[in-house]
Specification:
Layout lengths: L2 H4 L3 H10 L8 H30 L1 H30 L13 H6 L8 H4 L3 H11 L7 E8 L5 E8 L10 E9 L24 E9 L1
Antiparallel strand pairs: 1-2, 1-4, 3-4
Length: 214
Amino acid sequence: MSPRLLSLPWRAITSISRMNEPRTPDRSGGDRAQAYTLEGFVGAAIVLGVVLMALHSGPLAAVMEESGERDRQNQLQQETQDALVVAAAADGGPGDEEVGTLSAFVRAWNGTQFSSDEVESYVLGEVLAEQFGESPRDLEYLISFNFENENGSVSQETVYATSDEEPDTNAVAANYVVTVFGDQEEADDFGLRSSISPPGESAGTVIGVEVTVW
């Protein structure tokens, strides 16, 4: 041992010896960091799960349900409008007769409601029955005429309905305008005469055909 070491106190010599010993890495700090990270991930997952559950059981579910119902109504209204367009553009058949067309259907009304057989002899009734009444959806619908009276007031008359119940809040409606002239000949199978425009009247009567489905 060198003379210099002999002159040092024993405690100093011990400290110097420990400084020269190999050190074992302290892993306790790394383990704690990993534990904290894992706890953070678990906590975040729990919070996310709670938030998703709250959204699905609350406002988000209501918004999604409302959006789905709105899409269904839009689709139903488009189908109803298409039925009116098809009926209005229907080919009257041989000899340019208008049997079954929307115009013939309007002019055939005699002031009372049509029966099922009468309605389905026209293109509109046939399409509506196929699309709604006889389909797996089993939907109800009614047909009404809107027209202006001689005194200027507007009347709405239900000419056919599949149910005695009133349409519910989710009902949709579509309209199509038909002009009826008094000198037009009637060409329906039931021999009904229109109660809207008197025969021989030159001025046309505008009739709004409305179909409501629910």
